[in-house]
Amino acid sequence: MKYIWSALSLLLLMACGTKQNGSRGKENISEKITITAQDVKMSMDYMASDELGGRATGSEGIEKAAVYIENYFKKNGIKPYFETYRDSFKIGEIDGYNVVGMIEGTDDTLKNEFIILGGHYDHIGKGKTVEGDSIANGANDDASGTIAAMEFGRYFSKSKSNKRSILITLYDAEEMGLKGSAHLAARLKEAGLNVYTMLNFEMIGVPRAEDKSLAYMSGYNRSNLAPTLNKYAGEEIVGFFPKAKEFQLFYRSDNFPFFKELNVPAHAISTFDFTNFEYYHHVDDEADKMDYDHMANFINKMIPALKGMMNSSTKEVVLNEE
User: Fold this and answer.
1) Strands (E), the chain
2) Torsions phi, psi of 181, nearest 5?
3) 30 versus 141: which is more confidently predicted?
4) Which of 75, 141, 272, 274 pairs with 206 at a CA distance of 20 to 30 A?
């Protein structure tokens, strides 16, 4: 009889060990997901290629970019938020398409609150010809921010580590006056979506000087978002850029329509500070000029910052009184 009990005890110990190891494996899955420079470069090589013709709104090239993003979402388990991935709108006779994916939160209550991550995937199409090249491929502006948002989507879709729900929103017609983000923000307001915060990634393809923070945020003093992100990152990854107000950056990027429509903390985060890249709206804004190690580093450092905000028990990010 004692041998039977010994065998049963051994089986129980093995079962408990397996269960614990399984739980541990589940808890640590997010630790095994790292965004690499090669991951980023693979998307950039297509998004900023001549095949897409500069991604002007209404062009064949931006349609190809939209399809690429949709396929990326499908491959990585990011579901459509609407009936399809497309949020369609018109600018006169021109058709525009935002691409919108969703990662549902894991908490039964907090999943009803949404964090929006985005970037604009359109560009200007053609630019002033330089050495026979007239295609403005927009690698930094804003294939870089678009790819960052896509990689965040892949990470959270695979890791299942977000208690709040996430919308990954890639905007068309930013270059025509924030038309795509304005359309989506109004649509989400009409639907009554419970939006907590919105972060727009705008030109993160090149690093700042070593004595500067990794990135900066427009409208820095309008909310406590930057210090909250830095708290969860364990370092200052989002700093203050003195010229942001002078350049009116808060109003010039896709964060602004969300602030205007939804009255929530909505900011653009960038590593381009007008001193570290000379090819803004230029045909030489090319994939081979991007710093992929920097981009991967930025994305990986942002992940714990975003995760902390997504999983906090309360809405700790709030608007400041102006």
Assistant:
1) 79-80, 86-91, 94-103, 114-120, 125-130, 133-136, 165-171, 195-201, 215-217, 238-239, 266-270
2) -65, -35
3) 141
4) 75
Can you tell me the distance from the alpha carbon of 121 to that of 96, in angstroms, rounded to the nearest whole number?
11
Kindly state the percentage of the chain with pLDDT values over 90.
Answer: 89
Cα(258)–Cα(239) distance, integer angstroms: 22
* HEC profile of 57-126: CCCHHHHHHHHHHHHHHHHCCCEECCCCCEEEEEECCEEEEEEEEEECCCCCCHHHCEEEEEEECCCCEE
Can you list the domains of the chain with their CATH numbers? 36-311 (3.40.630.10)
pTM of the model: 0.91
d(CA 118, CA 188): 14
What is each CA distance from 225 to 35, 76, 276, 319, in whole angstroms? Answer: 23, 28, 25, 8
**DSSP class of 320:** P
The pLDDT of residue 6 is above 50 = no
Is the pLDDT score of 212 beyond 60?
Answer: yes
Based on the number of CB atoms within 10 Å of its own CB, is 68 exposed (0-12), middle (13-18) or buried (19 or more)?
middle
Residue 61, C-beta contacts closer than 8 angstroms, at least 6 positions apart = 51, 52, 53, 54, 55, 125
CA distance 252 to 156: 28
Nearest of 181, 146, 172, 124 to residue 295 by alpha carbon: 146
Contact 99, 86 (CB under 8 A): yes
pLDDT for the residue 5 = 43
Instruction: Find the mean pLDDT for residues 158-176.
Output: 98
Residue 201 CB burial class (10 angstroms; 0-12, 13-18, ≥19): buried
Task: Answer whether residue 314 shows pLDDT above 50.
Answer: yes
**Quick check: 220 and 269 in contact, CB under 8 A?**
no
Query: CA 91 to CA 95: how far, in whole Å?
Result: 6
Say which amino acid occupies 196: Y
